[in-house]
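INTERNAL AUDIT FORM
Audit reference: QA-55
Scope: verify that the stored structure record matches its stored sequence.
Auditor: D.O.
Record contents follow.
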Amino acid sequence: MEPDNRSREWITMADWEALRIADGAMAELGRKIIDRLSIAYLATVTADGWPRVHPVCPFFHGTGIYVGLIETSPKCRDLLRDGRYVLHALPGPSDAEFWLRGRARAVDDGERAELARAEHGAIPDTSRVFELLIATAHTAVYRPGENDLPAPTRRRWAAALVERAADA
């Protein structure tokens, strides 16, 4: 058997509304978990390629999910350089977890001003705001399984994927 030299490349990112329309139950659970504590963990990619994890306070507005980051913070620099992220939120009902994977998009000054007004000034002037565009969304809900050990029920939703040759 010849090795498979294909790699996956995300070609489409979705906003929160696209997830909500495609899988309302997943979006509802994710929002419930995020709103419960208002804190999630944001993983970014450092300049040397290593992962970095930071606590953040995501918020929803219109069709999107956003984070505001202090401009001088390492996580802000990471997202400006390489927008790849994972946002992980827990615990939810039955110790549920919710996570998103995608690319962050820095919002422009006009969008930022609109978001700051909508959030009643909760976004400091020293913050950059990023919309978290979604490639995949995941949930894990734990219930008693064999020998009463927690057993996860996992769900996944993905925006469009395309396969392309690794050397293309």
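Auditor finding: record pair retrieved intact. Residues 24-37 form the longest helix (14 residues).
Action required: none
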